[in-house]
């Protein structure tokens, strides 16, 4: 259903009247309690948000300006005076944004359709790992008895003999350890 113009104006006027009375109540309470400007600004924001549930955009925009005016007059020094001070930092930022050339990377050169870049070659499948060569049997040496026995590998390093493991036998004068590990060593 469409409302007539008169009905829309009456509804907007009622929303503005409710909003102004809510802002006046918050302002009177905050002045009586001596609240700071930041606290009062949050209370104004709560009032505007609650009004946003029912009011239209035009009424909310007007009530936002009324709230900023109340905050300026009653809570920002000099109090009880409406003052507008220039904001140098905001003006400088706007001037810089309007006059500064943006720094961008140069655009890549477009090539003609006839000279399209060559397609990338397809990825090659991974090659199978080669097996290591089979081990050759150890060279054997004929013993005097005629039997063959494996040849000992040559010592690594500069002519040094390979290090030998210590014997499992206890040193003289020492008592061998007792337990399962000691019995295993002694049976060998």
Summarize the structure.
The chain has 188 residues and is mainly alpha-helical. 45% of the residues lie in helices and 3% in strands.
Structural commentary:
With 188 residues, this protein is mainly alpha-helical. 45% of the residues lie in helices and 3% in strands. It is built from 5 helices and 2 strands. The protein has helices at residues 5-33, 37-52, 57-75, 88-99, 180-187; strands at 140-142, 148-150. 6% of the residues are buried. The mean pLDDT is 75.
Instruction: Give the total of beta strands.
Output: 2
Shape: elongated
User: How do the SSEs run, as a string of H and E?
Assistant: HHHHEEH
Low-confidence runs: none
Strands of the biggest beta sheet: in what spatial order?
1-2
**Helix-and-strand structural type:** mainly alpha
Number of helices: 5
Average pLDDT over all residues: 75
Largest sheet: 2 strands, antiparallel
The separation of the N and C termini measures 106 Å
Radius of gyration over alpha carbons?
Answer: 48 Å
Helix content: 40-55%
Quote the beta fraction: under 5%
């Amino acid at each position: 259903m469409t409302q007539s113009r008169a009905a829309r104006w009456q509804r907007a006027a009622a929303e503005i009247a409710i909003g102004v009375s809510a802002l006046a109540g918050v302002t009177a309470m905050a002045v009586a309690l001596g609240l700071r400007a930041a606290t009062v600004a949050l209370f104004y924001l709560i009032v505007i948000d609650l009004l946003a549930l029912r009011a239209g955009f035009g009424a909310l925009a007007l009530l936002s300006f009324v709230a900023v005016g109340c905050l300026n007059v009653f809570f920002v020094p000099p109090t009880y005076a409406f003052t507008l001070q220039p904001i140098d930092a905001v003006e400088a930022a706007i001037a810089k944004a309007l006059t500064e050339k943006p720094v961008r990377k140069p655009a890549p050169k477009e090539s003609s359709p006839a000279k399209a870049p060559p397609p990338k070659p397809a990825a090659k499948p991974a090659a199978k790992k080669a097996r290591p060569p089979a081990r050759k049997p150890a060279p054997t040496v004929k013993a005097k008895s005629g039997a063959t026995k494996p040849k000992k590998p040559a010592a690594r390093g500069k002519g040094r003999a390979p290090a030998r493991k210590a014997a499992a036998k206890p040193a003289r004068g020492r008592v061998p350890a007792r337990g399962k590990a000691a019995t295993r060593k002694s049976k060998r």
